[in-house]
Amino acid sequence: MVAEDEPRIASFVEKGLRANGFTVTVVGDGLAARDAARSGEHDLMVLDIGLPVLDGFAVLRALRAERCTIPVVVLTARDSVTDTVAGLEGGADDYMAKPFRFEELLARVRLRLAPDRSGGELTVLTAGDLSLDLRTRRAHVDGRTVDLSAREFALAETFLRHPGQVLAREQLLSHVWGYDFDPGSNVVDVYVRYLRKKLGAARIETVRGMGYRLV
Cα separation of 40 and 51, whole Å? Predict the structure, then answer.
């Protein structure tokens, strides 16, 4: 369940989760979020703090007071240490500040839905002689370490999570730069060039009229 009152953000999160195989319900106020969480029909809630009727903190307090154990990932523009601590101490399982990268939100959702699986969360992505360590944020190509900026790493991670799949510029913009991106920007093309220089020119293929593919 996604509890978010900004339609653009709610739609962005909903579409991304559905594209990754989740069934999603969207609610726009805290009272609806609390009641939906109580129903037992949802496995996880992505919760905005600045909701109308009841804010996210009130929703959390009510649910935890009732011993409702639904995992909650807080997603909010309030990014101060005080708010973060208040969210976690109030019963949130995780806390993300806006603006955010969808890939990071997706990883946190998957982790909270399967916290006890024996294999643990995937920490290294590989494709041939290319690997990304998600914990150390280091890239390795043909046995050597390659330094990537945060955006370069996020773009490489997106390609490695979708090996062989053609990704449109708009998909890459939303995954790496978040919901607040400019669809007319050429920033994807710029960063693909950066990655080609560091990882190898032939590793990322241009599919004309469609986007890019990791090969």
Answer: 21
Which of the residue ranges 113-122, 165-174, 191-200 would you say has the lowest mean pLDDT?
113-122
Per the CB < 8 A criterion, the answer to whether 188 and 199 are in contact is: no
pLDDT at 32 exceeding the cut of 50: yes
**Which DSSP state fits 189?**
H
How far apart are the C-alpha atoms of 86 and 64, rounded to whole Å? 14
**84's tokens:** 């973060």
Contact (CB, 8 A) for 145 and 139: yes
E strands of 43-113, at which residues?
A: 45-47, 72-76, 94-97
Phi, psi dihedrals of residue 57, rounded to the nearest 5°: -60, -40
Specify burial of residue 127 (Cβ count, 10 A radius: 0-12, 13-18, 19+): middle
Instruction: Report whether 155 contacts 169 (CB < 8 A).
Output: no
Residue 157 backbone phi and psi in degrees, to 5: -60, -40
Which has the closest alpha carbon to 199: 136, 125, 103?
A: 125
Task: Tell me how far the alpha carbon of residue 48 is from its chain's centroid.
Answer: 15
pTM > 0.70: yes or no = no
Report the alpha-carbon distance of residue 97 to residue 65 in Å, rounded.
25
